[in-house]
Specification:
With about 220 residues, the chain is an alpha/beta fold. It has 2 domains: about 120 residues, 3-Layer(aba) Sandwich (Rossmann fold); about 100 residues, 3-Layer(aba) Sandwich (Rossmann fold). It has 9 helices and 9 strands. The radius of gyration is 17 Å and the shape is globular. The two termini are about 25 Å apart.
């Protein structure tokens, strides 16, 4: 089975790593939509169009059997539309806000600006919405794109911008795949649970489509 993934940059690489660990039987194609970086600062229409273009490329050119939208913002904006357009399974990363609000007393939800605006509408109907602290990070995705391998700079960002939540929140949800690169720094500085959407994604894919066994490899492309 061949699985295609796409994101605007390195964030989705963390999703790819998790999929390869759990589903080594599959082949992978990863599409960097570099011209779309960062998705979180784009309009809904532009992100939706870029997601459709990415899916078209992965399906028609690379003949993938399933697609993972390895970006929270693109998932929130385009997952439903992509599922309507294509016959193959398409998966995304949608924040489990209701589950988090029930499990924790105070959850810091880190997102891009666009995801933040979408989630503000989503939480209005949640009984425990007061347990969620939605905090958009305007330039963090670009910052991580630049300093993904620089632990000093990653820690510096957390210390200067997020350390103030220490002792206030008992969980941080990473609502952007780029933010997975500061997971260890957040854990060290805030000392609380750090959660992201990969486990839910993997569990869903495990239930629905994985019955294939073969050697795995990954091809990388730039759009």
């Amino acid at each position: 089975m061949k699985i295609g993934l796409f994101d605007s940059g390195v964030g989705g690489i963390k999703v790819l790593e998790s999929l390869r660990q759990h589903f080594s039987c599959c082949d992978y194609v990863y599409l960097f939509d570099k011209n779309g970086l960062p998705y979180g600062n784009k309009s809904v229409l532009e992100i939706r169009n870029r997601a459709i273009n990415a899916c078209d490329f992965l399906i028609r050119e690379k003949h993938v059997d399933a697609i993972v939208i390895a970006c929270n913002t693109a998932s929130c904006v385009a997952l439903s539309e992509c599922r309507k357009r294509y016959k193959i399974p398409i998966y995304g990363l949608i924040p489990p806000l209701k589950k988090l609000s029930l499990k924790y007393n105070k959850v810091l939800v880190l997102t891009t600006e666009l995801t933040h605006n979408i989630l503000l509408k989503t939480i209005k109907g949640l009984h425990n919405s007061k347990n969620l602290v939605l905090t958009p990070q305007k330039n963090l995705a670009i910052y991580i794109e630049k300093y993904a391998t620089n632990k000093f700079m990653l820690k510096k960002y957390v210390e200067e911008n997020l350390a103030k939540y220490k002792g206030i929140v008992d969980c941080v949800f990473l609502g952007c795949t780029h933010y997975y690169f500061i997971k260890n720094e957040l854990k060290e500085i805030l000392g609380c649970d750090i959660v992201d959407g990969r486990n839910a994604l993997i569990n869903k894919m495990q239930r629905e489509i994985f019955n294939f066994i073969k050697n795995s490899h990954t091809d990388f492309y730039y759009l």
